[in-house]
Design a protein that fits this description.
Blueprint: H1 2-11, E1 23-30, E2 36-45, E3 49-54, E4 56-58, E5 61-68, E6 74-81, E7 84-91, E8 95-102, E9 107-111, H2 114-132, H3 147-152, H4 154-163, H5 168-180, H6 184-193, H7 196-199, H8 202-216, E10 227-229, E11 235-237, E12 245-251, H9 256-272, E13 277-283, H10 290-299, E14 306-308, H11 316-320, E15 328-332, E16 338-341, H12 346-355, E17 361-369, E18 378-383, E19 392-395, E20 400-407, E21 412-420, E22 430-438, E23 441-447, E24 454-457, H13 460-474, H14 480-490, H15 495-508, H16 513-522, H17 525-528, H18 531-545, E25 556-558, E26 564-566, E27 574-580, H19 585-601, E28 606-612, H20 617-626, E29 632-634, H21 643-647, E30 655-659, E31 665-668, H22 672-682
Parallel strand pairs: 1-8, 12-13, 13-14, 17-23, 27-28, 28-29
Antiparallel strand pairs: 1-5, 2-3, 2-6, 4-5, 6-7, 8-9, 10-11, 12-15, 15-16, 17-20, 18-19, 18-21, 21-22, 23-24, 25-26, 27-30, 30-31
Length: 684
């Protein structure tokens, strides 16, 4: 309750400054026949800060003296009687203010100047509203601050605005509702009914800004701009970061959950700061907290931009973003649109992984083998994202193992092998093997007595793979193609949907290029950001383009002697664009046919340009020499990720394209006798 009440005081901290000299007030409190044991008065202004005074209790009543520092300032009475603390908000006005508590109705009443007279009129409506609500906890002291009450009190405010449009109390109550309320349309409508002088006042201007925040801040909206001073007084503008992913983070040094969240933000910032990502932290600290704010920035190693208006909840940025609690954050895409809100803990990294792919993400695996006896030996890990093709190993300790690494994709398919020499088999040792999908973050694997039987936690992709496998067992009458298409359509955001599509395109060929391209289009925007998904899309485009009759896609590559070779160099001549690799046995078996064709037709106008899909320059060079390939050889040593291979839709080799003098493809996949026959037709 106190948290909410002080928040309400904060919304009143920016009321217009006192035009005349400060004036004294006296608060007299009485609880009737109930003895009062303690009374305090709490109040806050941005200029003077927080203050709490204790009352002098005489004959069961309390008196507190003070000074009014603003034209309109609220105070919070904290009174202890009947063994519990009660609180009441009212206006601090010059002169005597009488506050009383009615035990029969459980209501407070106030008699003072004009503001408190209007407040009493408002409270009469509010108390009647409370009495009409049907709720089991109406006797609870916090009841009037419950969500049910806060969401519906707009109807009470509407009644009061209708009869008191020129009352500052109407403006303040509407402003207080707007802090946590959700009915932006009604709030704006009531605001327009207030007297012009109220709407143009400092609080009115603040409320107008707050209403804009209520109306606009949803996922998909453009984030409100701002320009706020950093600790050195230099203004930092949100507009300066357009073109980047930006996390606009609201926090405060006094907010324990904010402090607890900082390590997660540091982790995210370190991982993505070099990948078009930035954080801007906006502190909701008070004017008297600047030194503490600067100290905490250094203490918690918050190395990204830090700004603050030092106006607590009433800073213009907090109003525009409708901040009613902290921590709060908004993730913006490079165009400035909000794509996610209030990402905490691992959720922040998960979201960043989907929108900023290609960044190596850390993963850990903790595995345990269920066995009545100790399993000894090693566990080996190999995975598809490991460009070096090496295996990691871990020694089993108490039947457990641990791996840590990084990945670039949404998930990796891990192959885990167990070698245990203590368990004999025909070769004198036992081997266990299992495969599973591991995602960034932490994955736990529980192996059954049979090592291949496992259960994962922390890998939704593996759950999707298990679901698909279960469907395959149950749907015996459904073709693999139908099952794959249905799964992808039902799970467009799953990495396993992409795996199925990639396998179908590259290995099984069940889908036409157009069908595969259509499925690729329905994958989620997050998946489409990954390099592998983009490559698959480009591969499908290459399939559609690299056809007989179409212009051959242009390209350039480096030759063995490191010269740049372009397809356009062969304009006006026939050229056989040949894709192969040293490790490809069908390619090597076809090389003698290509060599024979080259010797037979080179003097008649045939040119050959071979593109190797090797990853090793030494093996590529060795194969060229061994097979005596005399024509131009080029490669960027990227395997199937070779940009030219992707442009031509290459997912299997050998493949070739005969390009005519006009640059159009005149034939494809000419091998053996077919190659000699077609070239013979051309070079008669």
């Amino acid at each position: 309750m106190l948290k909410h009440i002080f928040f309400t005081l904060a919304t009143l901290g920016s009321l217009q400054a006192l035009a005349q000299a400060t004036q004294p007030f006296t608060v007299k409190f009485s609880a009737g026949n109930t003895p009062v044991t303690k009374v305090e008065l709490a109040r806050y202004t941005l200029k003077n800060g927080a203050r709490r005074d204790s009352g002098v209790i005489t004959n069961g009543q309390a008196v507190i003296h003070g000074t009014v520092y603003a034209d309109r300032q609220k105070g919070q009475l904290l009174a202890t009687f009947s063994g519990r603390q009660h609180s009441y908000l009212f206006y601090l006005e010059p002169g005597i203010i009488n506050v009383s508590y009615d035990a029969a109705s459980n209501h407070f009443h106030v008699v003072g100047g004009k503001l408190n007279k209007d407040l009493e009129a408002y409270n009469t409506l509010f108390y009647h509203f409370l009495d009409t609500l049907q709720a089991p906890n109406k006797t609870d002291a916090n009841y009037q601050f419950s969500p049910l009450v806060l969401e519906n009190k707009i109807h009470v405010i509407a009644q009061f605005v209708k009869t008191h449009p020129a009352s500052a109390v109407a403006l303040d109550e509407l402003n207080e509702y707007a802090v946590r309320g959700k009915d932006a349309a009604t709030t704006e409508q009531l605001f327009k009914q207030l007297a012009p002088a109220l709407r143009t006042s400092a609080t009115g201007t603040e409320l107008a800004t707050r209403i804009k925040g209520m109306n606009t801040l949803k996922t998909g909206d453009v984030a409100p701009g701002f320009s706020i001073p950093d600790p050195d007084g230099k203004n930092i503008s949100l507009a300066a970061f357009k073109g980047k992913y930006v996390l606009v983070d609201f926090w405060a040094t006094w907010c324990a959950p904010c402090i607890a969240e900082i390590p997660n933000m540091v982790k995210a910032y370190d991982a993505y700061k070099d990948h078009n990502f930035e954080i801007i932290s906006i502190s909701l600290d008070r004017p008297d907290s600047k030194d503490l704010w600067i100290k905490k920035i250094a203490e918690y190693k918050m190395t990204w931009p830090q700004v603050s208006e030092l106006k607590w909840w009433n800073g213009p940025s907090a109003l525009r973003y409708h901040i009613n609690s902290v921590p709060a954050n908004f993730l913006l895409d490079p165009s400035g649109k909000i794509i996610a809100m209030n990402l905490r803990g691992e959720d922040l990294q998960k979201k960043l992984r989907t929108v900023i792919p290609g960044v190596e993400q850390a993963f850990t695996i903790d595995g345990k083998i269920a066995s009545d006896t100790a399993v000894t030996g090693k566990v080996y890990l190999a995975y598809e994202d490991n460009d070096d093709g090496q295996r990691d190993s871990a020694v089993l300790v108490n039947n457990t193992y641990h791996f840590a690494g990084t990945m670039k994709d949404g998930a990796i398919q891990a192959a885990i092998t167990l070698e245990d020499r203590s368990l004999p088999n025909s070769k004198g040792r036992f081997k266990g093997f299992s495969q599973c999908y591991v995602m960034p973050g932490h994955t736990t694997i529980a192996h059954g007595p049979r090592f291949s039987d496992l259960h994962l936690q922390g890998s939704p992709v593996q759950q999707d793979a298990d679901t698909f496998a279960a469907q395959r067992r149950m749907q015996q009458g459904v073709s693999e193609k139908e099952r794959t298409v249905a799964f992808i359509k039902a799970h467009p955001a799953s990495w396993y949907s992409f795996v199925l599509l990639e396998q179908t395109v590259i290995r099984t060929y069940d889908l036409t290029t157009e069908q595969a391209d259509s499925l690729c289009d329905i994958l989620s925007p997050g998946l489409k950001q990954y390099t592998r998904v983009k490559t698959l899309k480009a591969l499908l485009e290459g399939r559609k383009v690299a056809k007989v009759g179409n212009m051959a896609p242009a390209f350039s590559q480096h030759s063995l002697d490191n010269k740049v070779v372009k397809l356009s160099d062969y304009k006006g001549r026939y050229v056989l664009v040949d894709f192969w690799a040293s490790w490809c046995h069908p390619c090597r078996a076809e090389n003698p046919n290509v060599t024979a064709a080259y010797h037979k037709y080179k003097d008649k106008g045939l040119n050959i340009l071979s593109i190797s899909l090797d990853a090793s320059r030494d093996r590529w060079l060795e194969a060229v020499k061994h097979d005596k390939l005399e024509w131009t050889q080029v490669s960027n040593l990227q395997g199937f990720n070779d940009e030219v291979a992707v442009k031509y839709g290459i997912h299997a080799i050998p493949r070739n394209f005969l390009v005519g003098p006009d640059g159009r493809i005149v034939a494809m996949d000419l091998r053996g006798d077919d190659l000699d026959k077609r070239l013979g037709e051309i070079f008669r």
